[in-house]
Specification:
This protein folds into 2 domains: about 20-295, Rossmann fold; about 305-405, Anticodon-binding domain of a subclass of class I aminoacyl-tRNA synthetases (Four Helix Bundle (Hemerythrin (Met), subunit A), Up-down Bundle), CATH 1.20.120. The chain is built from 13 helices and 14 strands. The protein has helices spanning about 55-70, 85-95, 100-115, 130-145, 175-185, 225-235, 250-265, 295-300, 305-315, 325-345, 355-365, 370-385, 395-405; strands at about 20-25, 30, 35-40, 75-80, 125-130, 150, 155-160, 200-205, 220, 240-245, 270-275, 280, 285, 325. A 5-stranded parallel sheet has the order 5-4-3-10-11, with helices on both faces. A 4-stranded antiparallel sheet has the order 6-7-8-9. Strands 13-12-14 form a 3-stranded mixed sheet, covered by helices on one side. Strand 3, helix 1 (about 55-70) and strand 4 form a beta-alpha-beta unit. The chain is globular and about 75 Å long.
Length: about 400
């Protein structure tokens, strides 16, 4: 599966800061020191609807992580998956009377278009669950053969008791885990499971649903969590720098994925930091495909909304915050991009050297984009009210905003 084209990242004078970021597993900030190549895995979409603003906010956060790393003169090895076979996708295809593969291809294509428009840097490896199945099956067989998995009526489940570190990503108690498992694709009430929280690794073939040959597992398809583990281990290995996604993936997805990897390798940790973006609401409720309260990036683009304004609307909120999308949020971003473009189109202005360092400092401090935006706003206001004589300043501001925040002026 191919990703989307990369936008150019302008080079800036000087060097960025090492990133300090909130790690869900430790509950505090950690300073990431990845070495010359930073490794990041971000969980991708299930393509039965294209990019809504909640998706965009998540991918914006991890685009910023990459940009901070690139500014430190590191390379970035970024991997993202596409869950191109799963229950929600199959259910939507049946509802709409379309082939599930066509639906997945259509929505993945639209997602690529949205990411390109928003200037999100693409992953080096963009892997669909279906194409990863040949690598997933041997991992499930290994877990079963080592006693970390078991069969139940043809399905194969992972035993959470096989990982001594289970629970160390989310730190949720058993009651919360059970409730979230039921809410987010698990089956804690199924009779016969060793532990209600045990997640499915391999679903035996069901009538009318796609399946693949699973060697000794029999025909079926993989569970959600093992998909990402197989892809991450194949392309990044254990101990990569950041596992990223929305806060709704903390449990069960990231918790279970970490446990799968620990059991498979005998190593710890799966990722050095677990980083999670907040949720975006509409009309008082989290944007959700099941609720249908969605604002789509593609719909805004069709309405003529500037992608730079869409991106600025995301950047106006701290990535870990839960916030609500409103018409005013978008209008504020439209106004801001207008002010910024007017400023960088002028022939000179106040020196921008200090501004570049302010942006770097803010982003290195747990991706503090509201502070970074406020710094640019102050420079723009100074130029408007005081002027300046630095002919290179507008160009530096334009390049810094693009390189560090992905906003093309």
């Amino acid at each position: 599966m191919h990703a989307w084209p990369a936008s150019e990242v302008p080079a800036l004078p000087g060097k960025g800061r090492d990133l300090r970021i909130h790690d869900t597993a430790t509950g505090g900030r950690v300073t990431l020191d990845p070495g010359p190549v930073a490794r990041i895995y971000v969980c991708g979409i299930t393509p039965y609807d294209a990019t809504h603003m909640g998706h965009a906010a998540t991918y914006n956060a991890f685009d910023l992580v990459q940009r901070v790393w690139l500014d430190t003169k590191r390379q970035v090895h970024y991997v993202q998956n596409v869950t191109d076979v799963d229950d929600p996708l199959l259910e939507r295809a049946v509802r709409d009377g379309v082939d599930w593969t066509s639906l997945a291809e259509r929505e993945t294509s639209l997602f690529r278009e949205d990411m390109t428009a928003l200037r999100m840097l693409p992953p080096q490896h963009y892997i669909g669950a279906v194409e990863a199945i040949p690598g997933i099956v041997p991992l499930i067989e290994r877990l079963r053969d080592m006693g970390a998995a078991y069969e139940l009526e043809g399905d194969v489940y992972f035993s959470v008791e096989s990982d001594q570190h289970f629970g160390e990503v989310s730190h949720y108690d058993a009651e919360a885990m059970r409730a979230l498992s039921a809410e987010r694709g698990g089956d804690p009430d199924r009779p016969g499971k060793k532990n209600p929280l045990d997640p499915m690794l391999w679903m035996a073939a069901r009538a009318g649903e796609p399946s693949w040959g699973g060697a000794s597992l029999g025909p079926g398809r993989p569970g959600w969590h093992i998909e990402c583990v197989a892809i991450a281990l194949d392309h990044l290995g254990m101990g990569f720098d950041v596992q990223g996604g929305g806060s709704d993936l903390i449990f069960p997805h990231h918790e279970m994925g970490a446990s799968h990897a620990h059991a498979l390798t005998g190593e710890f940790p799966f990722a050095k930091a677990y980083v999670h973006a907040g949720m975006v609401a509409l009309h008082g409720q989290k944007m959700s495909k099941s609720k249908g309260n969605l604002v789509f990036v593609s719909a805004l683009r069709r309405q003529g909304v500037d992608p730079a304004a869409i991106r600025l609307s995301l950047l106006a909120h701290h990535y870990r915050a839960d916030w609500e999308w409103t018409d005013q949020v978008l209008q504020d971003a439209v106004d801001r991009v207008g002010r910024w473009r007017a400023a960088v189109s002028r022939p000179d202005g106040p020196s921008a050297d200090a501004l570049v360092e302010e942006i770097r400092d803010a982003l290195a401090d747990d991706l503090d984009t509201p502070t970074a935006l406020a710094a640019v706003d102050r420079w723009v206001e100074r130029q408007r009210t005081e002027g300046g004589t630095d002919e290179g300043a507008p160009g530096i501001v334009s390049r810094a905003v693009d390189a560090l925040m992905g906003v093309a002026l």
